[in-house]
Design brief:
The protein is mostly helical. The chain has helices at 2-28, 33-61, 63-82, 87-100, 103-114, 120-146, 156-176, 181-184, 193-201, 205-234, 238-267, 269-285, 293-321, 327-356, 360-368, 370-388.
Protein backbone atom coordinates (compact mmCIF):
# COMPACT_ATOMS: atom_id res chain seq x y z
CA UNK A 1 0.00 0.00 0.00
CA UNK A 2 2.80 2.44 0.89
CA UNK A 3 4.43 2.09 -2.52
CA UNK A 4 1.12 2.75 -4.28
CA UNK A 5 0.54 5.84 -2.13
CA UNK A 6 4.05 7.06 -2.88
CA UNK A 7 3.53 6.54 -6.61
CA UNK A 8 0.22 8.42 -6.51
CA UNK A 9 1.84 11.20 -4.49
CA UNK A 10 4.68 11.66 -6.99
CA UNK A 11 2.22 11.73 -9.88
CA UNK A 12 -0.01 14.27 -8.11
CA UNK A 13 2.91 16.58 -7.40
CA UNK A 14 3.22 17.02 -11.16
CA UNK A 15 -0.53 17.52 -11.52
CA UNK A 16 -0.51 20.00 -8.62
CA UNK A 17 2.19 22.11 -10.25
CA UNK A 18 0.00 22.62 -13.33
CA UNK A 19 -3.45 23.11 -11.79
CA UNK A 20 -3.05 26.57 -10.17
CA UNK A 21 -1.23 28.13 -13.11
CA UNK A 22 -3.51 26.72 -15.83
CA UNK A 23 -6.06 29.60 -15.92
CA UNK A 24 -3.35 32.25 -15.93
CA UNK A 25 -1.39 30.39 -18.62
CA UNK A 26 -4.52 30.29 -20.78
CA UNK A 27 -5.12 33.99 -20.11
CA UNK A 28 -1.63 34.68 -21.46
CA UNK A 29 -2.91 33.35 -24.81
CA UNK A 30 -6.03 35.52 -24.62
CA UNK A 31 -8.47 32.95 -23.21
CA UNK A 32 -11.75 34.16 -21.71
CA UNK A 33 -13.34 32.79 -18.54
CA UNK A 34 -15.57 30.49 -20.60
CA UNK A 35 -12.62 29.25 -22.69
CA UNK A 36 -10.65 28.55 -19.50
CA UNK A 37 -13.50 26.44 -18.12
CA UNK A 38 -13.78 24.65 -21.47
CA UNK A 39 -10.07 23.86 -21.16
CA UNK A 40 -10.85 22.16 -17.84
CA UNK A 41 -13.77 20.32 -19.46
CA UNK A 42 -11.58 19.03 -22.30
CA UNK A 43 -9.54 17.06 -19.78
CA UNK A 44 -12.67 15.46 -18.35
CA UNK A 45 -14.34 14.88 -21.74
CA UNK A 46 -11.47 12.60 -22.76
CA UNK A 47 -11.27 11.06 -19.29
CA UNK A 48 -14.88 9.93 -19.52
CA UNK A 49 -13.91 7.69 -22.45
CA UNK A 50 -10.54 6.58 -21.15
CA UNK A 51 -11.39 5.67 -17.53
CA UNK A 52 -13.56 2.59 -18.27
CA UNK A 53 -11.07 1.44 -20.91
CA UNK A 54 -8.12 1.68 -18.52
CA UNK A 55 -10.18 0.05 -15.76
CA UNK A 56 -11.18 -2.85 -18.01
CA UNK A 57 -7.59 -3.25 -19.27
CA UNK A 58 -6.36 -3.33 -15.67
CA UNK A 59 -8.89 -6.09 -14.89
CA UNK A 60 -7.50 -8.07 -17.82
CA UNK A 61 -3.77 -7.30 -17.88
CA UNK A 62 -3.04 -6.14 -14.34
CA UNK A 63 -3.06 -2.92 -12.35
CA UNK A 64 0.69 -2.30 -12.41
CA UNK A 65 1.16 -2.28 -16.19
CA UNK A 66 -1.73 0.11 -16.83
CA UNK A 67 -0.76 2.40 -13.96
CA UNK A 68 2.80 2.77 -15.26
CA UNK A 69 1.66 3.33 -18.87
CA UNK A 70 -0.69 6.14 -17.86
CA UNK A 71 1.97 7.77 -15.67
CA UNK A 72 4.37 7.92 -18.62
CA UNK A 73 1.69 9.25 -20.95
CA UNK A 74 0.73 11.93 -18.45
CA UNK A 75 4.34 13.11 -18.24
CA UNK A 76 4.47 13.52 -22.03
CA UNK A 77 1.27 15.57 -21.84
CA UNK A 78 2.88 17.96 -19.33
CA UNK A 79 5.80 18.54 -21.69
CA UNK A 80 3.46 19.28 -24.58
CA UNK A 81 1.47 21.64 -22.38
CA UNK A 82 4.61 23.58 -21.40
CA UNK A 83 5.67 24.14 -25.00
CA UNK A 84 2.19 24.53 -26.48
CA UNK A 85 2.68 27.92 -28.12
CA UNK A 86 -1.03 28.53 -28.71
CA UNK A 87 -4.42 28.16 -27.04
CA UNK A 88 -5.36 25.38 -29.48
CA UNK A 89 -2.26 23.40 -28.50
CA UNK A 90 -3.14 23.87 -24.82
CA UNK A 91 -6.48 22.19 -25.52
CA UNK A 92 -4.76 19.30 -27.32
CA UNK A 93 -2.26 18.78 -24.50
CA UNK A 94 -5.02 18.80 -21.91
CA UNK A 95 -6.89 16.21 -23.96
CA UNK A 96 -3.85 13.91 -23.78
CA UNK A 97 -3.67 14.50 -20.01
CA UNK A 98 -7.32 13.51 -19.73
CA UNK A 99 -6.69 10.33 -21.71
CA UNK A 100 -4.04 9.35 -19.17
CA UNK A 101 -6.17 10.30 -16.15
CA UNK A 102 -7.80 6.88 -16.09
CA UNK A 103 -5.03 5.87 -13.67
CA UNK A 104 -7.23 7.26 -10.88
CA UNK A 105 -9.74 4.43 -11.45
CA UNK A 106 -6.86 1.93 -11.63
CA UNK A 107 -5.43 3.17 -8.32
CA UNK A 108 -8.84 2.83 -6.67
CA UNK A 109 -9.22 -0.72 -8.03
CA UNK A 110 -5.68 -1.50 -6.80
CA UNK A 111 -6.71 -0.40 -3.29
CA UNK A 112 -9.89 -2.49 -3.50
CA UNK A 113 -7.75 -5.54 -4.33
CA UNK A 114 -5.63 -5.01 -1.22
CA UNK A 115 -8.35 -4.29 1.35
CA UNK A 116 -11.47 -5.80 2.87
CA UNK A 117 -14.79 -3.94 2.54
CA UNK A 118 -14.57 -2.79 6.17
CA UNK A 119 -11.12 -1.27 5.56
CA UNK A 120 -11.97 0.35 2.26
CA UNK A 121 -13.18 3.81 3.29
CA UNK A 122 -10.03 4.39 5.31
CA UNK A 123 -7.86 3.07 2.47
CA UNK A 124 -9.60 5.32 -0.07
CA UNK A 125 -9.00 8.16 2.37
CA UNK A 126 -5.28 7.39 2.35
CA UNK A 127 -5.31 7.58 -1.45
CA UNK A 128 -7.03 10.95 -1.04
CA UNK A 129 -4.36 11.97 1.46
CA UNK A 130 -1.66 11.13 -1.08
CA UNK A 131 -3.56 13.35 -3.52
CA UNK A 132 -3.70 16.07 -0.88
CA UNK A 133 0.02 15.89 -0.12
CA UNK A 134 0.71 16.10 -3.84
CA UNK A 135 -1.36 19.26 -3.80
CA UNK A 136 0.77 20.60 -0.94
CA UNK A 137 4.09 20.15 -2.73
CA UNK A 138 2.95 20.69 -6.33
CA UNK A 139 1.26 24.10 -6.08
CA UNK A 140 4.03 25.41 -3.81
CA UNK A 141 6.59 24.44 -6.45
CA UNK A 142 4.43 25.93 -9.18
CA UNK A 143 4.13 29.23 -7.30
CA UNK A 144 7.89 29.44 -6.82
CA UNK A 145 8.72 28.49 -10.40
CA UNK A 146 6.25 30.72 -12.22
CA UNK A 147 7.45 34.02 -10.74
CA UNK A 148 5.52 37.12 -9.73
CA UNK A 149 4.65 38.51 -13.20
CA UNK A 150 4.72 35.57 -15.64
CA UNK A 151 4.26 35.63 -19.41
CA UNK A 152 3.63 32.64 -21.73
CA UNK A 153 7.31 31.57 -21.76
CA UNK A 154 7.51 31.56 -17.95
CA UNK A 155 5.02 28.68 -17.72
CA UNK A 156 7.31 26.22 -19.51
CA UNK A 157 9.58 25.54 -16.52
CA UNK A 158 6.78 24.41 -14.14
CA UNK A 159 5.53 22.06 -16.87
CA UNK A 160 9.02 20.62 -17.42
CA UNK A 161 9.37 19.98 -13.68
CA UNK A 162 5.91 18.42 -13.58
CA UNK A 163 6.86 16.09 -16.44
CA UNK A 164 10.15 15.14 -14.77
CA UNK A 165 8.41 14.32 -11.50
CA UNK A 166 5.78 12.19 -13.21
CA UNK A 167 8.44 10.38 -15.25
CA UNK A 168 10.20 9.65 -11.95
CA UNK A 169 7.11 7.79 -10.76
CA UNK A 170 7.48 5.25 -13.60
CA UNK A 171 10.76 3.57 -12.54
CA UNK A 172 9.68 3.91 -8.91
CA UNK A 173 6.51 1.95 -9.64
CA UNK A 174 8.30 -0.48 -11.96
CA UNK A 175 10.75 -1.50 -9.24
CA UNK A 176 8.61 -1.28 -6.12
CA UNK A 177 4.97 -1.92 -7.12
CA UNK A 178 3.73 -5.49 -7.11
CA UNK A 179 0.65 -6.82 -8.82
CA UNK A 180 -1.98 -7.53 -6.12
CA UNK A 181 -2.23 -11.25 -5.41
CA UNK A 182 -5.99 -11.08 -5.70
CA UNK A 183 -5.68 -9.86 -9.26
CA UNK A 184 -3.03 -12.39 -10.27
CA UNK A 185 -5.51 -15.23 -9.87
CA UNK A 186 -8.23 -13.47 -11.88
CA UNK A 187 -6.34 -11.54 -14.49
CA UNK A 188 -7.06 -13.93 -17.30
CA UNK A 189 -10.78 -14.19 -16.64
CA UNK A 190 -13.10 -12.92 -19.37
CA UNK A 191 -16.59 -11.59 -18.86
CA UNK A 192 -19.39 -10.95 -21.32
CA UNK A 193 -20.79 -7.46 -21.86
CA UNK A 194 -24.01 -8.58 -20.19
CA UNK A 195 -22.11 -9.67 -17.09
CA UNK A 196 -20.24 -6.35 -17.00
CA UNK A 197 -23.52 -4.45 -17.34
CA UNK A 198 -25.05 -6.39 -14.47
CA UNK A 199 -21.95 -5.77 -12.33
CA UNK A 200 -22.38 -2.01 -12.76
CA UNK A 201 -26.17 -1.95 -12.53
CA UNK A 202 -26.66 -4.12 -9.46
CA UNK A 203 -26.61 -3.68 -5.70
CA UNK A 204 -27.59 0.02 -5.68
CA UNK A 205 -24.41 1.10 -7.45
CA UNK A 206 -26.16 3.54 -9.87
CA UNK A 207 -27.68 5.47 -6.95
CA UNK A 208 -24.28 5.99 -5.31
CA UNK A 209 -22.77 6.93 -8.67
CA UNK A 210 -25.54 9.52 -9.05
CA UNK A 211 -24.55 11.10 -5.73
CA UNK A 212 -20.92 11.08 -6.86
CA UNK A 213 -21.98 12.92 -10.03
CA UNK A 214 -23.61 15.73 -8.01
CA UNK A 215 -20.63 16.10 -5.67
CA UNK A 216 -18.23 16.08 -8.61
CA UNK A 217 -20.34 18.62 -10.53
CA UNK A 218 -20.25 21.04 -7.61
CA UNK A 219 -16.61 20.48 -6.66
CA UNK A 220 -15.37 20.78 -10.25
CA UNK A 221 -17.06 24.15 -10.72
CA UNK A 222 -15.37 25.28 -7.51
CA UNK A 223 -11.92 24.11 -8.62
CA UNK A 224 -12.25 25.34 -12.20
CA UNK A 225 -13.31 28.81 -11.09
CA UNK A 226 -11.18 28.99 -7.95
CA UNK A 227 -8.24 30.95 -9.48
CA UNK A 228 -10.62 33.31 -11.30
CA UNK A 229 -12.69 33.74 -8.12
CA UNK A 230 -9.55 34.53 -6.12
CA UNK A 231 -8.54 37.04 -8.78
CA UNK A 232 -11.94 38.75 -8.77
CA UNK A 233 -12.77 38.54 -5.06
CA UNK A 234 -9.35 38.80 -3.41
CA UNK A 235 -7.17 40.35 -6.16
CA UNK A 236 -4.76 37.38 -6.10
CA UNK A 237 -2.42 36.30 -8.91
CA UNK A 238 -0.87 32.98 -9.93
CA UNK A 239 1.61 32.84 -7.05
CA UNK A 240 -0.97 33.58 -4.34
CA UNK A 241 -3.39 31.05 -5.85
CA UNK A 242 -0.62 28.42 -5.86
CA UNK A 243 -0.02 29.00 -2.16
CA UNK A 244 -3.78 28.80 -1.53
CA UNK A 245 -3.78 25.38 -3.20
CA UNK A 246 -0.93 24.37 -0.89
CA UNK A 247 -3.07 25.30 2.12
CA UNK A 248 -5.97 23.32 0.64
CA UNK A 249 -3.68 20.34 0.10
CA UNK A 250 -2.55 20.39 3.73
CA UNK A 251 -6.15 20.41 4.94
CA UNK A 252 -7.19 17.62 2.58
CA UNK A 253 -4.17 15.47 3.47
CA UNK A 254 -4.94 15.78 7.18
CA UNK A 255 -8.67 15.23 6.84
CA UNK A 256 -8.42 12.24 4.51
CA UNK A 257 -5.22 10.71 5.85
CA UNK A 258 -5.84 11.18 9.58
CA UNK A 259 -9.52 11.87 10.26
CA UNK A 260 -11.48 9.91 7.68
CA UNK A 261 -10.51 6.35 8.59
CA UNK A 262 -11.17 6.56 12.35
CA UNK A 263 -14.35 8.61 11.87
CA UNK A 264 -15.69 6.11 9.30
CA UNK A 265 -15.03 3.18 11.60
CA UNK A 266 -16.68 4.96 14.52
CA UNK A 267 -19.86 6.36 12.94
CA UNK A 268 -20.13 4.58 9.56
CA UNK A 269 -19.87 5.76 5.97
CA UNK A 270 -23.43 7.18 5.63
CA UNK A 271 -22.91 9.59 8.53
CA UNK A 272 -19.50 10.58 7.21
CA UNK A 273 -21.15 11.37 3.88
CA UNK A 274 -23.78 13.46 5.70
CA UNK A 275 -21.11 15.50 7.51
CA UNK A 276 -19.19 16.04 4.28
CA UNK A 277 -22.21 17.03 2.18
CA UNK A 278 -23.47 19.47 4.81
CA UNK A 279 -20.01 21.03 5.26
CA UNK A 280 -19.47 21.48 1.51
CA UNK A 281 -22.91 23.06 1.09
CA UNK A 282 -22.32 25.42 4.01
CA UNK A 283 -18.88 26.47 2.76
CA UNK A 284 -20.20 27.28 -0.71
CA UNK A 285 -23.15 29.26 0.63
CA UNK A 286 -20.81 31.36 2.79
CA UNK A 287 -18.51 32.55 -0.03
CA UNK A 288 -20.05 36.05 -0.34
CA UNK A 289 -18.67 36.83 3.13
CA UNK A 290 -15.09 35.83 2.20
CA UNK A 291 -13.15 39.06 1.65
CA UNK A 292 -9.69 38.55 3.17
CA UNK A 293 -7.12 35.89 4.02
CA UNK A 294 -8.62 35.12 7.45
CA UNK A 295 -12.17 34.51 6.22
CA UNK A 296 -10.79 32.57 3.25
CA UNK A 297 -8.77 30.31 5.55
CA UNK A 298 -11.77 29.69 7.83
CA UNK A 299 -14.30 28.98 5.09
CA UNK A 300 -11.89 26.74 3.21
CA UNK A 301 -11.95 24.38 6.20
CA UNK A 302 -15.66 23.71 5.54
CA UNK A 303 -15.15 23.06 1.84
CA UNK A 304 -12.11 20.84 2.38
CA UNK A 305 -13.99 18.86 5.03
CA UNK A 306 -16.81 18.45 2.52
CA UNK A 307 -14.77 17.09 -0.35
CA UNK A 308 -12.43 15.10 1.94
CA UNK A 309 -15.36 13.20 3.42
CA UNK A 310 -17.65 12.96 0.36
CA UNK A 311 -15.40 11.68 -2.42
CA UNK A 312 -13.56 8.82 -0.65
CA UNK A 313 -16.74 7.71 1.13
CA UNK A 314 -18.74 7.52 -2.10
CA UNK A 315 -15.85 5.71 -3.79
CA UNK A 316 -15.72 3.20 -0.92
CA UNK A 317 -19.49 2.65 -1.02
CA UNK A 318 -19.31 1.90 -4.75
CA UNK A 319 -16.35 -0.43 -4.30
CA UNK A 320 -18.07 -2.29 -1.45
CA UNK A 321 -21.04 -2.99 -3.73
CA UNK A 322 -18.94 -4.21 -6.66
CA UNK A 323 -17.82 -7.84 -6.92
CA UNK A 324 -14.09 -8.54 -6.83
CA UNK A 325 -13.81 -9.64 -10.47
CA UNK A 326 -15.09 -6.33 -11.85
CA UNK A 327 -13.60 -3.76 -9.50
CA UNK A 328 -11.65 -2.05 -12.29
CA UNK A 329 -14.63 -1.94 -14.63
CA UNK A 330 -17.06 -0.62 -11.99
CA UNK A 331 -14.60 2.00 -10.74
CA UNK A 332 -13.89 3.01 -14.34
CA UNK A 333 -17.61 3.51 -15.03
CA UNK A 334 -18.01 5.47 -11.79
CA UNK A 335 -15.09 7.70 -12.74
CA UNK A 336 -16.58 8.21 -16.21
CA UNK A 337 -19.92 9.31 -14.79
CA UNK A 338 -18.06 11.64 -12.42
CA UNK A 339 -16.10 12.91 -15.42
CA UNK A 340 -19.41 13.83 -17.05
CA UNK A 341 -19.92 16.23 -14.18
CA UNK A 342 -16.42 17.57 -14.75
CA UNK A 343 -17.26 18.15 -18.43
CA UNK A 344 -20.50 20.07 -18.05
CA UNK A 345 -19.81 21.86 -14.78
CA UNK A 346 -16.91 24.20 -15.75
CA UNK A 347 -18.51 25.84 -18.83
CA UNK A 348 -21.84 26.23 -17.01
CA UNK A 349 -20.01 27.75 -14.06
CA UNK A 350 -17.98 29.95 -16.41
CA UNK A 351 -21.10 31.35 -18.05
CA UNK A 352 -22.71 32.04 -14.67
CA UNK A 353 -19.45 33.62 -13.49
CA UNK A 354 -19.34 35.92 -16.53
CA UNK A 355 -23.03 36.87 -16.48
CA UNK A 356 -23.99 37.01 -12.78
CA UNK A 357 -20.70 37.48 -10.94
CA UNK A 358 -17.97 35.43 -9.24
CA UNK A 359 -19.98 34.24 -6.22
CA UNK A 360 -23.03 32.89 -8.03
CA UNK A 361 -21.59 29.61 -9.40
CA UNK A 362 -20.52 28.66 -5.88
CA UNK A 363 -23.81 29.69 -4.30
CA UNK A 364 -25.74 27.57 -6.80
CA UNK A 365 -23.38 24.69 -6.03
CA UNK A 366 -24.29 24.99 -2.36
CA UNK A 367 -27.96 24.44 -3.21
CA UNK A 368 -27.13 21.53 -5.57
CA UNK A 369 -25.59 19.73 -2.57
CA UNK A 370 -28.94 19.63 -0.75
CA UNK A 371 -30.13 16.41 -2.49
CA UNK A 372 -26.87 14.76 -1.43
CA UNK A 373 -27.51 15.88 2.15
CA UNK A 374 -31.04 14.46 1.95
CA UNK A 375 -29.80 11.12 0.55
CA UNK A 376 -27.14 10.93 3.28
CA UNK A 377 -29.82 11.54 5.94
CA UNK A 378 -31.85 8.63 4.54
CA UNK A 379 -28.80 6.37 4.32
CA UNK A 380 -27.83 7.29 7.89
CA UNK A 381 -31.34 6.44 9.09
CA UNK A 382 -31.12 3.01 7.42
CA UNK A 383 -27.63 2.49 8.86
CA UNK A 384 -28.95 3.34 12.34
CA UNK A 385 -31.87 0.94 11.86
CA UNK A 386 -29.49 -1.91 10.97
CA UNK A 387 -27.31 -1.11 14.00
CA UNK A 388 -30.27 -1.39 16.37
CA UNK A 389 -31.42 -4.77 15.03
Amino acid sequence: MFVLLLTVFVDLVGFGIILPILPFYAQAYGATAVEITLLVSTYSAVQIVSAPIWGRLSDRYGRKLILLATLAGGALAYLWFGFAGSLLALFAARALSGAMAGNIAVAHAYVADLTTPAERAGAMGRIGAAFGLGFVVGPALGGLLVGSDPGPADYAMPCIIAAAISFAAVPLGMVMLREPARRESKMRDRASMGELFRAVRGNGIPNIIGLMFLVTFVFTALMALFPLWCQAQLDWGARQVSYAYTYIGLLVAFMQGVLLGPVSRRIGEPRVLLIGAAALSAGLLLVPWVDDVVTFAANTVFMCLGTSFCHPTLTALISQRADDRHQGTVMGVANSVAATGRIVSPPIGGMIFASLGPNWPLLIGGFIMWPVVAAAVWMSWRYQARETL
